[in-house]
Amino acid sequence: MTKKHRNGEIWEFEREMSGGAEGGGVGDVILGIDGGTTSTICVCVPFLPPQSLQFPDPISLLARVEAGCSNHNSVGETAARETLEQVMAEALSKSCSNRSAVRAVCLSLSGVNHPTDQQRILNWLRDIFPSHVKLYVRNDAVAALASGTMGRLRGCVLIAGTGTIAYGFTDDGREARAAGAGPILGDWGSGYGISAQALTAVMRAHDGRGPQTKLTNSILHTLGLSSADELIGWTYADPTWARIAALVPVVVSCAEAGDEVANNIVQHSVKELALSVTAVVQRLRLCGSDGKASFPLVMVGGVLEGNKGWGIAQEVVNCISKDYPGVVPIWPKVEPAIGAALLAWNFLKDSHKE
Q1: Rounded alpha-carbon distances, angstroms, from residue 350 to 31, 50, 133, 158, 344
Q2: CA-CA distance, 10 to 90, in Å (whole number)?
Q3: Do the first three CATH levels of 2-132 and 154-331 match, i.e. the same topology?
Q4: Coiled-coil ranges per the record (predicted)?
Q5: Residues sharing a CB contact under 8 Å with residue 89, sequence separation 6 or more, in sequence order
Q6: What is the SS3 assignment for 34?
Q7: End-to-end CA distance of the chain
Q8: The CATH fold of domain 154-331
């Protein structure tokens, strides 16, 4: 992102559009944004009247834009807002639309953990969009759940990417979450948690404080380093969460190759991820009074999607199903940004019913 996007200049494209600020070229639209620690994705989809029963399958996509991190805890509030404004403006520009054509916006963002976070972002959005636009701000886990249930907020979602969180909803609107507090506070099932433990294991082996492991040669080769001592400089030169988490495939490969240290790390992550889900299930009683009722578990994130060989996701499901046999795993057919757009549409439908 460059400085030319700042101070409102990012919206200059609207002046060049025919009709100026009075109308868009494709009719009314909805914006859905999935903002995470690693990337931010915005989609623009056509607006459907509230009386429509459901979005078409497949969903018509007018534009999709991707940028970097928009978690204010990671990059600061100013940089996060610039990224969000950039992707929204570019999505509207690519779809030949503008802000006056927007009916609703749903920002689903990591780092939104408290009503004060929501209100601060809503205040900023109201300065950008016309007063008729409905604005919704939720945690990124909510859109991830909606991506698997096609907009219905019921069940549990487990996100395990750079970070991790479990988030659940009941049909009557109760909600609960577990984990999602970042690596310092113990998101150990996350990509960052797995990789950080692997780096620690390499240093322990190097010092003689821990067992030897295939992780040493594999990680050093991946990073182009010649010795474990160089890991210290590599790690602290840029200790961003996503950079560390990118080592997960190396850890999984070593586990698949039979390395005991790597296997223990991955097994520990499975237990931590399962614990997050069971905590949410217990608090919301998603399993019913007898513990056997079915409930959807939406699985999202690189740790659960990108390691098909070892099968972390299936191991997590197996662990959960021992106590809750009604768990129904779902791997979404659409990405969380589209889930955010579906949420915005459903919120609009609900508001018309009131």
Answers
A1: 17, 8, 15, 26, 10
A2: 8
A3: yes
A4: none
A5: 5, 10, 11, 13
A6: strand
A7: 41
A8: Nucleotidyltransferase; domain 5 (3.30.420)
Domain boundaries, the chain: 2-132, 154-331
φ, ψ at 94 (rounded to 5°): -65, -30
> In tens digits, what is the pLDDT along the chain, a chain of 354 residues?
344 444 457 888 887 775 544 444 568 999 999 998 778 999 999 998 766 667 777 788 999 999 998 888 778 888 889 999 999 999 999 999 999 999 999 999 988 878 888 999 999 999 999 999 999 999 888 999 999 998 888 999 999 988 899 999 999 989 999 998 888 887 889 999 999 999 999 999 999 999 999 999 999 999 999 999 999 999 999 978 889 999 999 999 999 999 999 999 999 999 999 999 999 999 999 999 998 999 999 999 889 985 555 689 999 999 999 999 999 999 998 999 999 999 999 888 877 665
